[in-house]
Amino acid sequence: MDKKLYTLAPSETMDDLQLFFFPPYITLAHMFHAPEGWALRSRVLKQFQLQYVLEGDAEYEIEGLRYRTLKGDLLFHGPGEVHQVDTVGGKPYVCISIVFHFGETAYPIRELIGFGLNGAKLPHHMGNYSEHPIENRLSELVHHYRQPGLYHQQRSQQLLMDILLSLAESRRKRSEVSVTKEASGTGKLILIRNYIDAHLKEGFRHEQLEELTGWSRNYVIAQFKQTFGMSPVQYLVWIRLEKAKQLALQSGLSFGQIAVEVGYSDIHAFSKIFKRKTGMSLSQFVATLYRDTPDR
After folding, report:
1. Tens digits of per-residue pLDDT, 13-50?
2. Which SMART domains does this one have (predicted)?
3. Radius of gyration of the chain, Cα coordinates, nearest whole angstrom
């Protein structure tokens, strides 16, 4: 019988509330005006950090990856990631830095903003949010963090979670657009495959596939091979041989007639390619399927 959690003492509910997490603990939230020539040498934090560019630009390096950040860019890095910042000479650099953690809780932040990719690193460049509500929330967070009292503490925590959830939503929308584009590409590949299936006997020219998809010949070949493990020509040969096997077993046609049905006018050429691809002649293939079963 399911527990009625609302009837239990708080301590008795904890084992059943594993998907609930404590709010983030903020250890730094400030707006920083970098002096001329300022730079941050390589360092490693044991906490998460959000770095938002309010004005100017800078070279931000995280784990050997360099990002040229401009006004509105938001960077994110996690515990243990080596990072450094170099400002650009003669240009201002004003940023908001938020450093936070979730206590001893193993908060699944990769699942929230990295979509749970096994072994994948967390994303660093979160996007550009100039004149976006996220920019206002970051500034408001800094304001509340600097004020004393429980209300301001709770507001800053709430704002940080709002920011993280907004980032997750933004990334999810971009991912959905990417999936839509990918689905469109997959649809064209299926269209190619169906076209080859329908023209098994006469075959195809690459110009026809280009016209069908709007892709270049090399792109058609590369995408088809990546998806189906063989080029369009290799796929045509494969389905012809599979059709030949089917006809040999079910149609009663001669081997010469089968060759013609699957697009080969020369039976010797057909026999040669069949043996090269399968390791046996068509007659040997049929014999292996109809070999007498020995008496027991």
Report:
1. 777 665 567 779 999 999 999 998 899 999 999 999 99
2. HTH_ARAC (SM00342)
3. 31
The count of domains in the chain is 2
For residue 191, being part of any structural domain is answered with no
CA distance 21 to 104: 11
Both 106 and 214 in one domain: the answer is: no
Residues 6+ apart with CB under 8 A from 289: 249
Phi, psi values for residue 248, rounded to 5° = -60, -35
Residue ranges making up the domain that contains 233: 199-289
- What's phi and psi for 154, nearest 5 deg? -65, -35
**CA–CA distance, 87 with 106 (Å, rounded to integer):** 34
pTM, whole model, 2 decimals?
A: 0.58
Q: What is the dihedral of CA 271, 277, 283, 289, to 10 degrees?
A: -160
pLDDT digits (tens, 9 = 90+) for 149-188: 999 999 999 999 999 999 888 777 766 555 555 556 777 8
